[in-house]
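thought: user wants a sequence for this fold. calling inverse folding tool.
action: design(structure=
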């Protein structure tokens, strides 16, 4: 990856673009934190929580609902403080400190999942709420570095590289854990409880290059002298002031606002898939351990490939077009997931095949994997292109707030619907979300939004 350089004058707001080592260090955080979201949220602990910790089989509707509530509560905490933290980080040039604090919080509480035993629902929910809160904050904090890493025309490939490395990390972490701990089964809980400490250890070690090689982005001329002389307790007030300033000028960022509205529905659908895909496979498809492992490996490989390919494509055809393509992928994948049992029967009858539902579900998972990496990568890069340099962390705080509000909306929506209609029928909610996201995205004018970001980058936000 080439490293463009730009000299920083004392009065300039343009940072020196990052070199290869710094970009790699930044991407390593994506690799490291993927161990948490993959092992704890998607593949292992979510299934353990519903099947073993709560254990209300055969339909696990209470377990699914409590899992939804835990994730929604953690995202609600992020929504409350995320943008304010971002504003403080921009003003005081403390992005790395905030990132480090979120990293330590996630590592510690994830390791504590070892102490959760069957029936200890309150403890499990508390640790998931706190650990996912730390993870989600860190996800926003690391994204706030993106606009300072390279020029706008290279943000797609940089973001795609980070996501691709992240999925590679998730694949390695989960492969090591599952091969060492065995299958996800009730009688294997004594081994599976180690998933928390192992995920924490992977995150702890994997993120070290981030803190060694990534620089604190430059702050506006004059801010350094001002904020160094202020008492610490004023930073919270300043954070609220800067967020208020932005909210009063939202009409200047209407394309970013429209994109975030589209992203809200896209991420509502995506959060359901991330949080319930393996629960769906366990409860509806009733897959064998072999197919469970194959699903994980193939979706991670597809997601990494999708992030890289669509990241390069984005720099050629534009971020908005790439985002639209990923939404079309998701519409096809969710439709296939929702009707997997029926589609299996139809293929067998009409084509004379002898497929199993878990095999068709595997194909749907590969299609979803392509959309998984590309959607998140293109969305993060597009936000970076529509964001003023001087308010990068704050605006990525709004991005993260949108994503987490969407997660609350989507996960709670599915949790409530599946109590009434069952998990399979409720998954159709994702289809509605992705179609809505695609419709709203057509209202975004990327060029106009980028021009607005350049103009606003010259204001102080005071």
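)
observation: tool returned 462 residues.
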């Amino acid at each position: 990856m080439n490293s463009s350089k730009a000299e920083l004058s004392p009065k300039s707001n343009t940072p020196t673009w990052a070199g290869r080592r710094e970009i790699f260090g930044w991407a390593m955080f994506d690799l490291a934190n993927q161990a948490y979201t993959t092992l704890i949220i998607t593949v292992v602990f979510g299934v353990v929580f519903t099947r073993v910790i709560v254990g209300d089989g055969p339909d696990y509707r209470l377990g699914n609902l409590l899992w939804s509530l835990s994730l929604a509560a953690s995202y609600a905490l992020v929504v409350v403080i995320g943008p304010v933290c971002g504003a403080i980080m921009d003003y005081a040039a403390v992005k790395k400190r905030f990132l480090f604090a979120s990293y330590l919080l996630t590592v510690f509480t994830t390791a504590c999942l070892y102490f959760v035993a069957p029936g200890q629902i309150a403890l499990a929910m508390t640790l998931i709420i706190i650990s996912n809160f730390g993870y989600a904050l860190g996800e926003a904090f690391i994204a706030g570095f993106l606009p300072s890493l390279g020029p706008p025309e290279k943000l797609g490939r940089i973001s795609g590289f980070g996501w691709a490395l992240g999925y590679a990390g998730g694949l390695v972490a989960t492969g090591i854990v599952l091969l060492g701990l065995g299958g996800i089964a009730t009688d294997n809980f004594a081994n599976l409880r180690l998933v928390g400490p192992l995920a924490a250890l992977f995150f702890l070690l994997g993120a070290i290059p981030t803190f060694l090689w990534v620089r604190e982005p430059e702050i506006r001329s004059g801010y350094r002298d001002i904020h160094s002389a202020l008492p610490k307790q004023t930073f919270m007030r300043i954070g609220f002031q800067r967020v208020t300033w932005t909210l009063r000028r939202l009409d200047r960022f209407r394309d970013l606002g429209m994109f975030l509205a589209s992203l809200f529905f896209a991420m509502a659908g995506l959060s359901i898939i991330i949080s319930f895909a393996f629960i769906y496979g366990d409860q509806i498809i009733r897959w064998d351990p072999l197919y469970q492992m194959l699903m994980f490996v193939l979706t991670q490989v597809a997601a990494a490939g999708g992030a890289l390919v669509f990241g390069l494509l984005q720099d050629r055809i534009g971020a908005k077009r790439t985002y639209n393509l990923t939404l079309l992928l998701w519409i096809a994948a969710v439709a296939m997931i929702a009707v997997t049992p029926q589609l299996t029967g139809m293929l067998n009858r009409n084509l004379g095949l002898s497929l199993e539902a878990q095999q068709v579900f595997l194909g749907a998972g590969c299609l979803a994997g392509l959309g998984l990496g590309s959607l998140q990568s293109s969305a993060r890069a597009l936000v970076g292109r529509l964001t003023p340099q001087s308010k990068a962390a704050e605006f990525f705080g709004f991005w993260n707030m949108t994503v987490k509000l969407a997660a609350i909306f989507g996960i709670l929506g599915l949790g409530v619907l599946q109590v009434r209609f069952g998990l399979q029928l409720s998954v159709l909610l994702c289809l509605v979300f992705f179609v809505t996201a695609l419709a709203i995205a057509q209202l975004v004018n990327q060029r106009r939004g980028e021009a607005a970001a350049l103009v606003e980058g010259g204001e102080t936000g005071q």
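thought: summarizing for user.
answer: Here is the designed sequence. The chain has a mean pLDDT of 82.
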